[in-house]
Automatic annotation (TrEMBL):
Protein name, as recorded: Calcineurin-like phosphoesterase domain-containing protein
Family: Belongs to the metallophosphoesterase superfamily. YfcE family.
Highest taxon listed in the record's lineage: Bacteria
Record-annotated Calcineurin-like phosphoesterase domain positions: 1-205
Pfam annotation, one family: Metallophos_2
Organism: candidate division WOR-3 bacterium JGI_Cruoil_03_44_89
InterPro entries attached to this UniProt entry: Ap4A_hydrolase (IPR050126), Calcineurin-like_PHP_lpxH (IPR024654), Metallo-depent_PP-like (IPR029052), Pesterase_MJ0912 (IPR011152)
GO CC annotation: cytoplasm
A GO molecular-function annotation: phosphatase activity
Lineage, top ranks: Bacteria, Bacteria division WOR-3
Length: 241
């Protein structure tokens, strides 16, 4: 079974379309989306509609919770809050209804899927370091947990450190070990590589591959500015941070 894993699209339609072109070539059996379809970016309705059509499993992220009023926007950064409030104004009733039904975690293909962390997912904590990850392995019984939220690709092995994920050297997971895997962000990468990021998992070969795709960042930047969203949200796309 070949699975495509995407996360943190953040209403970036150009990045999303660019990865879909590659996904069409990969022809995966299933597409899993780990949340934050909206927030920050200028095309929330378009991105939610594509997710509805194309994705097999879809989770809620903290930006969906912010837009729905389930998480207090005072806990967000100012730029995130402004973008969430703008998203609330423009989002269609059908897309609100879709977002309300999304779970925060699930088990699919024998893997645990969540936007933030396996333990207390609605606290929206982050997994950045091997220590952050070490606290989370007790939160799932499966051998693999896929998560997003930090926008930084990483793979953590239980009892070990961080393994590198890359396009040229796919990672082969060891039998009998537990892993927490973040495949990065489609629409707002923060690992100083501005290209859109997603992952491909081959469940038979136990292979995880990160894929990076260039897209027209300037088009998205112009839309962010034209919609009156914070300038910083346009600038950060160029540096991938
Ligand atoms: Zn996010």
């Amino acid at each position: 079974m070949r699975l495509v894993v995407i996360s943190d699209i953040h209403a970036n339609l150009e990045a999303f379309r660019a990865i879909l072109t590659r996904i069409d070539e990969i022809k995966p059996d299933r597409i899993l989306c780990l949340g934050d379809i909206v927030g920050y970016g200028p095309n929330p309705n378009e991105c939610v509609e594509i997710v509805k059509k194309r994705v097999d499993v879809s989770l809620s992220g903290n930006h969906e919770y912010g837009v729905l009023g389930r998480t207090d926007l005072r806990t967000f950064s100012e730029n995130a809050r402004i973008a969430c409030e703008w998203t609330r104004e423009v989002l269609s009733e059908e897309n609100f209804a879709y977002m309300r039904e999304l779970p925060v975690s699930c088990v699919d293909e024998g893997m645990f899927l969540v936007h933030s962390t396996p333990l207390n997912p609605e606290r929206w904590n982050y997994v950045f370091t091997a220590r952050d990850a070490s606290l989370q392995f007790s939160g799932f019984g499966e051998s693999i947990c896929l998560l997003g939220h930090s926008h930084v690709p990483a793979c953590f092995e239980e009892g070990g450190g961080i393994c590198t994920l890359s396009e040229s050297n796919p990672l082969y997971l060891k039998e009998g070990r537990k892993y927490i895997i973040n495949i990065g962000s489609v629409g707002q990468p923060r690992d100083y590589d501005p290209r859109a990021s997603f992952g491909v998992i081959d469940t038979e070969e136990k292979k995880v591959q990160l894929i990076r795709i260039s897209y027209e960042i300037e088009v998205v930047q112009r839309k962010i500015i034209n919609r009156g969203l914070p300038l910083f949200l346009a600038e950060r796309l160029k540096i991938g941070a």
